[in-house]
Design goal:
The protein is 55% helix and 7% strand. By secondary structure, the protein is an alpha/beta fold. The structure holds zinc ion.
Length: 351
């Protein structure tokens, strides 16, 4: 497996293959000195927007770009690589926080108001933009409206609709959709051992970088454990509250996986379950494919609502939320079984 640092030393600051169109457009604008002073790189998480932002920041701060890519050798590139460039600022939530604090934004606006030290240009990278709450966003507005000197703000957003409209409207939106499956698999396959790249990509909702990151830590184990528990709840082999107590991961992750399974189940009701993907998850999808469409959609709505709540940075009681979620799942499975039973009886009555 190629590590991040190895890859970086081989081809510094090159955007991923599926980002070349966006890269060319922005690099041309930069060459022609027409790059907007505020960009918002927007699209689903895990497609490599942050990598793109890093590459772009490196290009903007490079003193002698080669073929519209940072040279990797000049003083600007050295400083960027070392993480000590005085004209590059990263703004992201501090550890264990989902929000960018107003004090952090004030530091950023001070930075943006000063003159650049190396060659004049300054770059601020803000990720994710939806982590700016109302106060933080308002504090940033002035810098967006009246940028000082040669300044570029690169905002990264996984959910542009959640970014305050006043911020969004002042940025040029650059779209990063989920790449084509074949392109993602071609990139992913050489990095993966011990798993099917198709399965990883499926788990990551088609986002290649997220698929690669699934190999780190025990995320995949957590996912398969959850799949097993959900089946066990459906078969009344374990109580929903016991499962809720066992869940240790991020509730947002739990909700996203369940959403993915329910959506896949609804699709599988039409197309059949792709059993080759993963043996642990196939029986779960079988169960979901049998759920009557109407209640499947209703449950999906509930999950989406929960996801929005979790993304909105409102303080939620994690334990309570997980208990409700597992009880809802149990109710879904019971309701589904009853409906299937009564349908069967109706069919039997007709025969
Ligand atoms: Zn350079």
């Amino acid at each position: 497996m190629t590590t991040e640092t190895e890859a970086a030393s081989v081809r510094p600051s090159v955007a991923y293959s599926w980002q070349q169109a966006q890269w060319q457009r922005l690099a041309d604008l930069h060459r022609d000195r027409r790059l907007p002073h505020a960009l918002m790189l927007a699209g689903p998480a895990g497609t490599g927007k942050r990598h793109f932002a890093d590459c772009l920041a490196a290009l903007l701060l490079c003193l002698s770009p080669v073929n519209q890519v940072a040279c990797g050798r000049c003083k600007g590139c050295d400083l960027v690589r070392a993480g000590t460039h005085p004209d590059l600022l990263m703004l992201q939530p501090e550890e264990k926080s989902r929000v960018i604090k107003i004090s952090q934004v004030r530091e950023a606006t001070d930075f943006l108001a000063k003159t650049g030290q190396q060659g004049g240009r300054k770059v601020a990278l803000i990720q994710p933009a939806e982590a700016l709450n109302v106060n933080a966003a308002n504090a940033l507005l002035k810098s967006l409206e009246e940028p000082a000197g040669d300044t570029t703000l690169i905002l990264v957003s996984h959910a542009p609709s959640q970014v305050m409209a006043t911020i969004r409207s002042r940025c040029q939106l650059v779209d990063f959709p989920i790449p084509e499956t074949s392109v993602s698999l071609a990139w992913l396959a050489p990095l993966v051992t011990g798993h099917k790249p198709e399965y990883l990509l499926h788990c990551a909702g088609g986002a290649p970088v997220a698929a690669r990151d699934l190999l780190q830590g025990d995320v995949l184990e957590q996912r398969q454990e959850l799949a097993g528990w959900l089946q066990a709840i459906g078969q009344a082999r374990i109580s929903p509250l016991d499962v809720a107590a066992k869940l240790s991961g991020d509730p947002l992750q739990t909700v996203e996986w369940m959403l993915q399974w329910v959506q896949a189940g609804i699709r599988a009701a039409v197309t059949g379950v792709d059993e080759g993907l993963n043996e642990v998850e196939a029986p779960l999808l079988e169960a979901l494919a049998a759920v009557p469409e109407q209640i499947g959609f209703r449950f999906m709505d509930k999950l989406m609502q929960l996801k929005r709540q979790l993304l909105s940075n409102v303080a939620l009681n994690k334990q309570l939320l997980q208990e409700e979620l597992m009880l809802d799942w149990q109710a879904l499975m019971k309701q589904s079984a009853l409906l299937q039973q009564s349908r069967q009886q109706m069919v039997n009555g007709l025969l």
